[in-house]
Structure formats: C-alpha cells, structure tokens
Amino acid sequence: MTSIFRFAAAVTAIVFVAACGPKEKSVKIAVAVPLTGDMGTEGQGLRRAVEMAVEEANAAKRFPYKLVAAPYDDRADPKEAVNVANLIISDPRVVAVIGHYNSGSAIPAAKVYARAPVAMVSPAATNPEVTAQQNSKDWFGPRMVFRVVPTDDVQGSYAATFAYTRLGLRRMTLLHDKTPYGQGLAEQFQKTFLRLSGKIVSEDGISVGDKDFKALLTKIKSDVSKPQGIYFGGLYTEAGLLLKQMRELGLNDPFVFISGDGAKTSGIFDVAGDSADGAYLSIVGVPVEELPSAKAFVDSYKKRWTGSGEELKPFDHFGYEAAQVIFAAMERAGSPDRVKVIAELKKTKYTGVLGTTTFDDKGDTLNKIVTMTRAHAQDHTFPSVK
Amino acid sequence: MLIQQLVNALTLGAIYSLIALGYTLVYGILAMINFAHSEVLMLGAFMALGLAALLPAIFGTGVVGLVGMFILSMAGAGVINVLVERFAYRPLRHISRLAPLISAIGVSIILQNGVFLWISTQSLRFPEPVAIGQVPVFGATISTLQITILAAALILMGLLHFFVERTKLGKAMRACSDDIQTAGLMGINPDYIIALTFFIGGALGGAAGVLYGMNYGSIKYNLGFLPGAKAFTAAVLGGIGNIRGAVLGGFILGILEVLASGYIPNGAQWRDVIAFTVLIIVLLVRPSGLLGEKIAEKV
User: Fold this and answer.
1) pLDDT digits (tens, 9 = 90+) for B124-144
2) C-alpha span between A190 and A174 (Å, rounded)
3) Is B131 near chain A, with CB under 8 Å?
4) Mean pLDDT of chain A
5) How are beta strands A229-233 and A256-259 bridged, if at all?
6) Residues in CB range of A165: below 8 A, 6 or more apart
7) CB of A284 within 8 A of CB of A154?
8) Is the Cβ pair A38, B134 closer than 8 Å?
9) Residue B42: per-residue pLDDT
10) More confident residue, B37 or A222
11) Where are the domains of chain A?
C-alpha cells in the first residue's frame, strides 16, 4: 500500500514541476466579435484576418514574446458583449482588444474596457456614438476607443448625395431596424437628403428578427406621393427579406433599394437570392479587391485561408489593419503595457492596407472614403459603381 | 391596396392557423401546452431543406417533387412530435400538470440547440420549389407563392376537419377530448389516440414550417420561436382546445398585424403592440377565447 502512495506522490511531484516549468511568455490580443449567429460569418472573417496578422508578426519576430489572438464570441448581442468585455479585462495578458463588430455591442462594451483601461480598436462599428460617448460627462476612464472605419455620418450622407445627384432621386422612403447602427445610418441619410431639398415620404422602423414586411411594402408601393426608392439602415438578413418581398410585390427597377455596409455581405444572396440584384450598398473604404495597397494582404489571406474554403469577408482588411495599428503602437510602447499602448495608439500614423490611418481626438480615423457598390446576383459580387 | 393587404394578411394568417392547430389539438386532449411545438415547426422546415436536395433525384422537380417534399417533411415532423410525447411527456403524464410543461420547455431548448450546434448557426437559403410569378388581380400583385401557401393551408385544414368530424378515429379523438378516462372505459386506447394527436399536430406544424421557409426564402435554427409564440396566442384568442377557434384566431392575428403595419403611420414598429392590445381586450371580454366554451377544470 505504501508503495502505491509513494508512487502517487512521485507522479504528483512530476506533474507539479512540469506545470511550474519555464513557460513561454505570451501576450494576447483579444478579438471580440460575433463568431456564431447571423453575423457569425463576418466575425469569423475578422478573426481569421487578425490571426493572420498575429502569425505574421510572430514569424517576423517583431516582439520578444509570443503573440496570441484570443477570440471571444459576443454573438452580436449587447448583453453578451458586456459579459465578454468583463472576461477580457480580467485577463492580465490581454494588451488590447479588436472589436466589436456591431455598434450596439461596441457602445456598452467600450464602457467596460474604459474601467481597465484597455484599448479597444473597432474594425467595423460605425455609429458615431461609439467614440462620441467618451465626451459625455459620465464617461469615467481615459479615452481608449479607436476605430479604423469611417462613421455612419460619412456613410449615410454619402448615400444621400449619391441618391440625389447620381441617381436623380427626389422622393425616398426611410426604413431602419431601430438599432444604433441602422437608425444612425437612416438619420444621417435623412439629414443630408433633406438638405439637398429631397423629400422623405415616410419613415418606418422594423424589428431585427421580423420576417414579414409585405404589409409595410404594400403601403410603400401604394403611397400617393410615389417614393422612388427605399433607404434601409440595417443588416443583411432584414435587407435580404425586404428585397425578396419587394420583388414579389412588383417593386422592381427603377424603384431602388439603397443600404449600408451592414447589408453588403454574400449572406444577402443566401436570404434574397436573385432578388438582391441591383441593390445599392455603400461601404466604407474601397472594395478590398479594388484597393492597390491591399493586394499583398488579399494574396496572403487567400494563401492562408482559401485552402480551408474560407473567403474574404467585407471587414477583414479593417481587422487586419486594426491589428497592424496595435502592433505598431506596441512596438513604440516598448512593452505590452495596456496604458502605454493606449498612449501610443493616440499618436498613430500608420500606412498600410487602408492607406494612412491617423486618429482624431475622439479616436476616429481621419481616413474617410466611402464607395457605392451594386449587388450582382449572378456571381455574388459587389462591383463598385463607377 | 386593400386587396393586396388582404392577401398578405391571409397568407400570414394561414401559417399562424396551421401552427395554432398543433397547440390546440394537444391542449384539447391533454390540457397541456406543448412548448416544443415551435421546434417541430423549425425541424419540419429543415427536413424540407434536406429533402429538397435529395428528392429531385427520386420524384423529379415540379409539382410531384413539391408534394413529395411536403408529405415527407410532414410525416417526419409528426414522427418527431410522437417521439417527444413518448419519451418526454408520457412518463410524466400522471405525475403532475407542471412536470410535462417543464419537460416541454426542455425539449424545445434541446431541439433548438441541437440544430444550432450540429446543422447551422446561420440563415440557410430555402430553395424556391416553384417558379414565382406574379398574377395581377384587380390592380393588386399576388404572387403564385402566396396562392400556393394559402391553397396548401386550406387543403390541410379541410382534411383535418374531415378527419375529426367524419372518421372513426376522429370520433375517438373527440371522445378523448371530452373525457379521456371514460373514453378509455369505452374501449378506446388513450395512449394510441394521444400519439395520433401528436402525430397530426406535428405534421401540421411541419407543413407550416415548410410554408414558412417557402414564404421567406431562408430558414434558421430559431425560426420557430416567434411564429410559435404568435400561433399560441392565436390559439388562445380563438379558444384553446377548439379547432375552428385556432383557425379563426390565426387569421384574425394575421389580419391585425397587416392592418397595423399597413394602415397606421409608422405602424410597422407598433405592429405587435397593437395586435397584442386587441388580444388582451378580447380576452378581458371573453376569457375563454372567441369560440372557447366554459368548461369545468379538467382533473
């Protein structure tokens, strides 16, 4: 019996020593995006882009420690985003956060990161409030929110100008999904469209998860002031259902459908099929395929991921750029210290995939390009409108 | 516009009615709310999606393939409902009224997460079984899809009516609904009738799931929740346990929703509020629902 005990003690000792052995020093970059659910495909794309950036940095031995991309799933749900944010700040090895995808998630999560404080660089959340909330009186903590995408005020007003001058539209109907992202886009569209002396015929909110818009679309179709198109602030599931039901009711060309970057993903073809054809969808930046500075990124992304059947998603180059901006700040800071990294991020002047990124005092990028694309159902692409 | 909206309302109402029938049939016999019904509906849609890929090889495309997909998905959903009853409800039937209810919620969570984890977390494209055309009727544009949905739902409701009112098994079902113990004494096997009821309710739910997928063109693991909740409401509105009430309730709810979002300014976001306000008012006036009878508490 005693020999068994002795044996057990020896085994325990060995395991114990092994566990306490010299461990490789590693530093984490948290990637807080939706990894499952409707926005999961976009989030997975961002995760892949950041993982690739991390692998490249490790291979080039840019840091004296090992970098790790740590993915967290916020399920595009603001409540879950706060839970995830709390999890992230309690891990001392996390030096910065790339996320969140949705504005609705980014706004409350940023408040949690401010408490730590740890820098949050959003590759996709476009509501102005994500950074503007840092100016409010009840913001406690330093300013640590950054984003590499232009905001909705840029995108919404771009779409309004496009509709008015390029398409010659004068009467538009406004729809949005009542989220900070969708409503923000719609409001910015309205502001600019009215200033251009266009007319907003009607305005309606829908709910995320609603499926049946036929009644609403029938109302729009038979509106006496004859709207020439719909501007929709929202995401691809609802945009796709709207498009499909629009076509079923006979709302075809020249009646237009314009929406923002949240709807510009191949998922819209899964929902709407051929009905998506001809929809105008604005995106921030330039389509990555048409961006000369992104060629190297696109090539290495394809080499790294296409073999596993994964294609480039619309925000991936923003995710990659967010990672690069953070790496540059970490290099300048000299150590993976959360506060030092925040201070260095403010001084960012980084030229990469998106062109040159610098931040204003709120943390918004000064690189503000918006492009209008048009859905092409036959080959599931979004060529830009020249 | 009115005709168009009416067609929109009837399509929506037809789907609600079919689902509501599943709730009401089960309640009529067991006085139990089958919360897993919304998942049976979802599974019906997923089975149809799977079959749509397989069936053209067997039945060919066109109407035969469509009917084949329909019948097999309905049968599949019915069998799932029977299995759920056999393993999750029957063992608890004589224990308490609450136990099967909790069991039903559990089944719902298990089925939904099963699909979420094993099949897909995202919206899947549902194939268009027939080419969608538009038929102009009195200035309204009605799609062939809406006509298909309405026709399929009405045929199924007609068949159910015939089965319950005119066949021996239907008579047995009604007898069990009146008094399950006495029915047992009269030589009816209650276990058999209950399983049959679950099969029919599940099959109708499965059919509704297929129609739902056809109508909206995409399906997802959580698609059952919202229509399930609304159809349950429709069943209560019509008088739960009453077959005609479920159909009536479904159509009323469909019409209310369409009227609210079609005729009230900015009504789309108030749609559910308006529909449910009317519902509360109806229940205040007629607590047992529109066609519900006042019955003594089942023991």
Assistant:
1) 888 876 667 778 877 777 888
2) 8
3) no
4) 89
5) parallel
6) A196
7) yes
8) no
9) 95
10) B37
11) 26-150+291-369, 153-284
Residue A41: closest CA among chain B residues belongs to which residue?
Answer: B122
Looking at CA atoms only, how far is residue A177 from chain B in angstroms?
9
DSSP class of residue A165 equals I
Per-residue pLDDT reduced to its tens digit, A112-138 = 999 999 999 999 998 999 999 999 988
Rounded distance between C-alpha atoms, residue A323 and residue A345, angstroms? 11
Residue that wins the pLDDT comparison between A301 and B59? A301
How far does B14 lie from chain A, in Å, by closest CA? Answer: 13
Contact B207, B152 (CB under 8 A): yes
The domain A153-284 is classified under which CATH number: 3.40.50.1100, 3.40.50.2300, 3.40.50.300, 3.40.50.800? 3.40.50.2300
Indicate if the pLDDT at residue B299 is higher than 50: no
Domain ranges (residues) in chain B? 13-222
Q: How confident is the model at residue A267 (pLDDT cuts 50, 70, 90)?
A: confident
Identify which of B82, B4, B47, B9 has the alpha carbon closest to the alpha carbon of residue B251. Answer: B9
SS3 A31: strand
Residue B61's pLDDT is what?
A: 65
Confidence of residue B68 (pLDDT cuts 50, 70, 90): confident
8 A C-beta contact, residue B152 and residue B160: no
Q: Which two three-digit tokens encode residue B216?
A: 């909206």
- A23-27, B183-187, B252-256, B276-280: least confidently modelled range: A23-27
Q: Is A21's pLDDT higher than 50?
A: no
Q: Measured between beta carbons, which residues in chain A are less than 8 angstroms from residue B1?
A: 218-219, 221-222
Task: Residue B4: list chain A partners with CB under 8 A.
Answer: 218, 221-222, 249
d(CA A310, CA A317): 14
Instruction: For residue A222, report the phi and psi dihedrals to the nearest 5 degrees.
Output: -100, 15
> Nearest CB to A214: which of B8, B124, B259?
B8
Give the CATH class of A26-150+291-369: alpha beta
B204: pLDDT confidence band, cut at 50, 70 and 90? Answer: very high
Q: A382 and A371 in contact (C-beta within 8 Å)?
A: no
The nearest CA of chain B is from the CA of A70 a distance in Å of: 21
A41, A216, A218 ranked by CB distance to B1: nearest = A218
Peptide bond into A117 cis (omega under 30): yes
User: How far B165 CA sits from the closest chain A CA (Å)?
Assistant: 34
Out of B124, B257, B263, whose CB is closest to A270? Answer: B124
Which chain A residues are within 8 Å of B121, Cβ to Cβ? 36-37, 40
CB contact under 8 Å between A218 and B262, yes or no, is yes
Task: Nearest chain B residue to A212 by CA: give it.
Answer: B216
